[in-house]
Amino acid sequence: MIRTHVYIWLIISTLAVLSVSCGRVPDYDKRLVEVDSIVATQPAQAKAVLLDINPNDLNDADEAYYNLLLTQACYINYDALTAGNDSIIQRALDYYSDHQADKEKFTRSNIYKGAVLEELGRVDSAMFYFKRAEVYADEKDDFNRGYAQLRMGDLYKRHQAYDGRDIEKFEDALKSFRKIQNNHYLILTLKDLGTLYRYRNAEKAEEDLNEAILLAKNEKDTTNYVHCVANLAYLYFMQSSKVGKDATALNKAYQELQQILRLNYLDKLTPFEYSTFASVYANKGKVDSASIFLDLAELQYGSDPSFYESNNFKEPMSEIAKANGNMLKYYKLSHECDSISFSLYRDLGVLNVMNAEIDWEKQFKEKQDADRRTRYYFMAGMMLLLLLLALLFYRRAHRYDKLVLELKDQSRNQMQDLSGLQGSINELKINDERLKSFISSHMGMMREMIDACYHEPNNRIAENMKRIVKFQDSNRDNWVKLYDYIDMEHNNIMTRTREQYPQLNDKDLLLLALTCMGYSYIQTAIIMGYSNATSVSVIKQRLAKKMGLDCSLNEYIERNEKQENPNEKE
Q1: pTM for the full model?
Q2: From residue 234, how far is each of 26, 195, 237 by CA, in Å?
C-alpha cells in the first residue's frame, strides 16, 4: 500500500516538473534582445544588425525570435514585402503556436503575419490574424492588443464597412492606448476616428481631431499635426456646404488651413489635403490661389493617371468652376464626384473582410466547445479511474464487501451519466449544424439585399425587400430554431416572453430575437422589410409599450439575463 502511494507521488512530481519546464520563457540571444529594443524606432539599424547574424547558428527559439524581428524591421522600414517575407514570419508563428509560453511574441507574430498578408493584398486572411492577435493578447499587453485593433479598424475603414465595425475597433484601440499613454498611436487613432465621425457625428469628429492636434503639437509630430488640421478644415468645409449654413464654418476651415501656411508645412500635404485647400479657397472667392493649390497637387501626384479620376482632383475643379460662374461644368463635375463616392461604398472586398472576423469567431467558439467536451471526458475518465483504483485497493485488502458493492453501483451510475453526457454533446452538435445552416441562409439573404440596394432601381428595391421578407415568414421553422438558440444564449428569453406576452405576433418576436443577437438598425430593417433604418428605433419603442414595459427593449433583455433560470435550478 505504501509503495503504491510512493509511485503515485513520483508520477505527479514528474508531471509538475515537466509542465514548469515547458512553460518557461527561454533565455534569448542578447543580440536579439538589443535589436528588439530599437526595432520600433530605428528599423533600418535593427535590420542591419539582424543581417549580420547567421540564423543557422541559432537554436529554435532564437531563430523564431530572429524571423519575427526581421519581418517587423522590414515592415516598419517600408521595404517591399514578398512571399518570402510571408514564409519567414510563418516560421516564427509556427514556433510560437507550439510554444505559447512567450505570449507577447506569439501575439506579435500574429500581428506581423497579418501585416504581411495585407501588403500582399490578402486582406481577409490579414483580418483573420489581426483578430487572433486581439483575442490571444495577454490581459496586460495593451499595446499589442491596441495595435491589432487599430489594424482591424483600418481594414474596415478602407473597405467601407457599413455596420459601424470600423469605429468600434478604433474606439477599442483608443482605450488600449490611453491605458499605456502611448501618444503616437493615440494621435493616429484619434485622426482615424475624426475622419470616420465626419459623416456620422460632426461634434465627436471635431472633438477627436482637436485632441489629436493638441497631442501632435505637444509631441512635435508635424506630419500628423498637418494631417489632423487639414481633416478638421475639411470637416468645417463640409458643414459650410450644407443647405442653410452660413459662412462661419467656411471661415473656420479657412483659419485652420492658414495655420499650415504660416508654419510652411505645405511639403507634408497629401493629395486630399491639397484638394481641401483648393476647395476652401475657391469658396472664399480666391480662385487664383485655389488653382495654385490644385497645380501643386498635380505637380506632386499628377504622374498617377488615377489622380485625375479621383475626387481629390474633381471636387476642387468643381468648386473652382462654381466660383468662376461656370455652373454647367460645376454640375457635371459634382455629378462625377457623387458617382465616384457611391462606387467607393460598393467595395466588394468589405464582405470578405467582415466575414473573416465572423469566421474566426465561429472557429474560436467551436474550439472552445471542443475543449469543453474534452474537459468533460477527462473529468469522467478521472472519476472512473479513481473508482477503479479504489475498487482495486479494497479487493486486495479483502475487506469492506458492502462498500465494494456500493462502488460498483456508483461506477454504473457514472457510466450512465457519461452516456447521457455523450447524448447531450451529440444534441449540441446537431443544434450547432442547424445554427450554421440558419446563419448561412441568413447571410445569403443579406448579400442579396445589399446587392439589390446597390444595383436595382428604387422601385425594385422595395419589391425585392418584400419578396425576401415574405420568404422568411413562410419558412418559420428556421425562426423557431433561431429562438431555441437565443433561449440557450439569453436565459430562456424567447420562451418566457411568449408565455408572459401572448399578445405578441411573429414580427414582434422576430424583432426581439434580432435585438438579442445585436443586429444593427440597418440589418434589422433589411431583414424585416422596413424601407428606413431609423424607423427601427420607433418600432422597438412601440413593442416595449405593447408589452407594457417600464424600460426599453434592450433593458428588458439585460434584466432577463439576471433572472433565475428554473431549468438550471431543476
Answers
A1: 0.59
A2: 51, 9, 5
Angle between helices 553-562 and 535-546 (to 10 degrees): 50
Is the separation of the CB atoms in 107 and 118 below 8 Å?
A: no
- Residue type present at position 402: K
What single string gives the DSSP state of each residue in 215-243?
Answer: HHHHHT-HHHHHHHHHHHHHHHHHHHHST
76-90 pLDDT, tens digit each: 998 988 889 999 999
Beta-carbon neighbour count of residue 5 at 10 Å?
Answer: 9
Taking the C-alpha atoms of residue 457 and residue 405, their distance in angstroms, rounded to an integer, is: 79
What is the identity of the amino acid at 100? Q
pLDDT tens-digit map of 232-264: 988 888 888 764 556 788 888 888 888 888 888
The helix-helix angle for 493-500 and 506-516 (nearest 10°) equals: 150
The list of the chain residues with pLDDT below 50 reads 1-3, 6-8, 10-12, 15-22, 243, 346, 400, 404, 443, 447, 450-451, 454-455, 457, 459, 461-462, 466, 469-471, 569-570
Q: For 325, which DSSP code?
A: T
Phi, psi of 146 (to 5 degrees): -65, -40
Cβ-based burial of 176 (10 A; exposed 0-12, middle 13-18, buried ≥19): buried
Rounded CA separation 146/516 (Å): 28
Round to whole Å and give the CA distance between 445 and 464. 11
Cβ within 8 Å of residue 372, ≥6 positions away: none
The residue to which cell 509511485 is assigned: 7
Q: Please write down the HEC assignment for all residues of 74-134.
A: HHHCCCCCCHHHHHHHHHHHHHHHHCCCCHHHHHHHHHHHHHHHHHCCCHHHHHHHHHHHH
| Grid cell digits, residue 241 | 456646404
Rounded Cα gap, residues 477 and 460, in angstroms:
28
Residue with cell 501656411: 261
Q: Mind listing the pLDDT tens digit for each residue in 260-289?
A: 888 888 778 888 888 888 888 888 888 888
